[in-house]
Amino acid sequence: MDYEPIIGLEVHAELATRSKMFCACPVVDSTVAAPNVAVCPVCAGMPGVLPVVNQRAVEFALRVALALECEINYTSIFARKNYFYPDLPKGYQISQYELPLARHGCLAILTSQGERLVQIRRVHMEEDTGKLTHVSQNGDHQDGDHLPGAHHPGGAYSLVDLNRAGVPLLEIVTEPDLHTAEEVRAYATALRSLLRYLGVNSGDMQKGVLRIEPNISVRPAGSQVYGTRTEIKNLNSFRALERSVAYEIQRQIESLSQGRPVVQETRGWDEARGVTITQRVKETEDDYRYFPEPDLPPLVVEPHWVEEIRSTLPELPAARLRRFKQQYGLSAYDADVLVSDRPVADYYEAVVHASGAAPKVVANWVSGELFSLLNQSDLGIDACPVAPEALADLIRMVSRGEINQNTGKVVLGEMFQSGRSPEEIISSKGLRQISDSDSLAGLVQQVLDENPDQVASYLGGKENLRRWLFGQVMRSARGQANPQVLEQELDRQLASRKK
């Protein structure tokens, strides 16, 4: 029997505000900050304290909702989502349930099958939980967000860090529109790019600021009845997302094919073993006992404020992708590579405008040589030591024939390491290209005179030796010969010897 996977995604994105969702505690990087340094009675869940909504967080949430073309609810309601974990200090989470901030949006994704729209069910605001670290009896530490302390490996004890508790969190929920691991990855990639363009989330998945939870079920092909779904919790890399979804689809298909029912549950991803593992039986909405948050009035956003926010939205990735293909004549692949990260797209356009070079030539330099240097140094484009104007100068010098392409790559590496301008490097190291035909004529003659056997073989019909002779002259010129001028002079002298 053929089966059809049905997948919906819940994405939790921390909003990049300076303070938490319902209190004035600063938002700190919980991966490097000392534990529990950004905690107050409000986010620690002390009795008698009152939450106050962070206006900046609402603004950021509206930016996302508008970019996803959602319908905005000008009045929305915060609710209490009741459940117990050691990293949830109040014993409930302030979230939104029946009346979220926004709903009914969409996001375009690109897959190997072309472009398609994924429907967004809802966008709602909530607060993040704290962070658990489980310490086993042998002293090993293991992160364990939302794992009951009694179930962690090794026994011993758990440590609770509440720095992250109360950080503004945006949950973006799709309809069950996705059917393959490729589509899931494409959606997650597109959403991360959108959030970064909007400036509301860093997209640094390794730090947990963007966490993805797919809900997966399978059903017989052609059936309209949904199968039993499982949820994979807290995935924080595209690789883990794609691999875990592919595994879980196959696991469910094999289970049903063997007559075993799928159990509704929450599962985790074991990266080392490449399998999903049971964590707990999946709660239903009734288990959370939602009710309106009594300490917060309805959240009312004025229409004029929403329109003001809409007017400040930047050019979004999908629109920029279309423009790069139309304005610069780039392929879909090149445009996607450059557009996926806003700072990269900004850098690329700055080089195009400063250099006057062909957009494709600039794309090759940025996505090729520059990306390679950045990856080797583990740097992002924001920390690139080569300014767009400096790369533009280098590209112009290559285009004018002052240096050749290979020398240009060497110069770029030196620019990256030293921060010096291409002119300084080329002048100080004598790298300027030799384009004078008289100078090259002497080098060609010397190489031909020193290699009579190879010249004779070439003249006898072994034409592949021309490339070898070319390389010998280029070596004599220390790689600085103008290739076009050199080829013309080499052909001229070989032809004269043939006569």
Explain this structure.
The protein is an alpha+beta fold. The protein has three domains: 3-309, no CATH class; 326-429, no CATH class; 437-498, Arc Repressor Mutant, subunit A (Orthogonal Bundle). The chain has 16 helices and 17 strands. The protein has helices at residues 55-67, 181-198, 238-257, 285-288, 303-311, 317-328, 332-339, 342-355, 359-377, 388-399, 405-418, 422-429, 437-450, 452-459, 465-476, 483-498; strands at 3-14, 71-72, 75-76, 78-82, 92-96, 102-111, 114-127, 131-135, 141-143, 157-161, 168-174, 210-220, 230-232, 265-270, 275-281, 291-292, 299-300. The strands form four sheets. A nine-stranded mixed beta sheet has the order 2-6-7-11-1-12-13-14-15. The protein has a three-stranded antiparallel beta sheet with strand order 5-4-16, with no helix packed on it.
Q: Shape from CA axes?
A: elongated
User: How many structural domains in the coordinates?
Assistant: 3
- Count the strands? 17
- Radius of gyration (CA) equals 30 Å
Uncertain runs are 146-152
Kindly report the average pLDDT value.
92
Structural class: alpha+beta
Q: Biggest sheet, open or closed, and with what strands and sense?
A: 9 strands, mixed
Quote the distance from N terminus to C terminus. 76 Å
Our count of helices gives 16
| Strand order in space, largest sheet | 2-6-7-11-1-12-13-14-15
Helix content: 40-55%
Which strand-content bin applies to the residues?
15-25%
